[in-house]
Amino acid sequence: MEKxxxxxxxxxxxxxxxxxxxxxxxxxxxxxxxxxxxxxAQIHALLMITPNAxxxxxxxxxxxxxxxxxxxxxxxxxxxxxxxxVVRKGERKEYFEAEKDVWKMFCIIVRERKRREIRPAIxxxxxxxxxxxxxxxxxxxxxxxxxxALCDFMEMADGVLSKVVRSERxxxxxxxxxxxx
Amino acid sequence: MEKxxxxxxxxxxxxxxxxxxxxxxxxxxxxxxxxxxxxxAQIHALLMITPNAxxxxxxxxxxxxxxxxxxxxxxxxxxxxxxxxVVRKGERKEYFEAEKDVWKMFCIIVRERKRREIRPAIxxxxxxxxxxxxxxxxxxxxxxxxxxALCDFMEMADGVLSKVVRSERxxxxxxxxxxxx
DNA sequence: CCATATTTTCATTAAATACTGAAAGTACGA
DNA sequence: TCGTACTTTCAGTATTTAATGAAAATATGG
Lengths: 181, 181
Description:
The structure is a homodimer of 181-residue chains. With 181 residues, chain A is mainly alpha-helical. Chain A has seven helices and three strands. The first copy, chain A, has helices spanning 8-33, 38-48, 56-63, 67-80, 102-131, 138-166, 169-179; strands at 54-55, 83-87, 94-98. The N and C termini of chain A lie far apart (60 Å). At the A-B interface, helix 1, helix 5, helix 6 and helix 7 of A face helix 1, helix 5, helix 6 and helix 7 of B. Chain B binds a DNA duplex (30 and 30 nucleotides) through residues 37-39, 56-57, 65-69, 71-72, 75, 92-94.
């Protein structure tokens, strides 16, 4: 172990590392608050700020996590479509890279949440509405009114999100800014 | 224990109870997927479909949960602004009722999530950007570009949500429907 | 095929989160 | 100011969720 001279470059590299670590940690915490596994969010953060694709071993090393953990969460990210696996010709191991375009990321997350959470929730609400449909007591009518209102709202939200996600970034961003006056 | 005759009314009451239970259970599961404590979501569901305000004891009884659990989650819901506590004159105990207007509920949730999660996330991103700001390596510039893109996007989203939430339901709903063509 | 590199699975363990219930605290009316 | 009704707190426990690491499965090149 040679002691390196403290050059400008080494100081800067350390600063960058600190910033990257902070970003990975915080992105994990943010994901956590939104119901996303912390490690999954951290891997996503790491891949977002890494220009080249990484192997499972590199992810393990960077985040100090086990192979099983890295593997499971990488697969989960691929399942969401936020990460792609790439194969380099002549190499046996798999590399992973994140979708870096923020608008595309947003669309992927919205589409998946719609599919996995909003749609099922709407179906459940419809089922509840059906079950209480014929009943005529005041209690029953209050129940139906409330669940219908929720259901209508969620269907509207689902529709608006579909439209937003289908639209082109180039049209929606300036529109949003104008909308904001 | 007398055996009751199976009247039409008792059948209907049972049907309604089943529908209500289903709703409470499923709303709990939905909340869970979005990072909200299951019991908190269940209490919220219960209060949404109950026309009158309930006491802590009634909530405990309905959901078969402990006093501590009911208390903590009711307070949390009051903290979000989704539930109000009401005092009936001449009565000592506290009653709780949910905000039932779906648009108001939506606005409350959006405002709170903005305040508790989006704003802090933006601040964290800004901090990361600042830390890597002066650095000139290719790695550093890639990092800054990515975090800036994320930050800009989140600020835009934050702005759009502010505007939506400030707007009147009466103007936004027809607008959303038109927007959807 | 065999030897080796790489990925996947999964029983076990660890960590995080949520719940209970009883005790302590508070407020109110008589 | 005492007794009672009600609320709050929190140490201990239970449940859920996530992570580890080693063994099994799979793929690849020779």
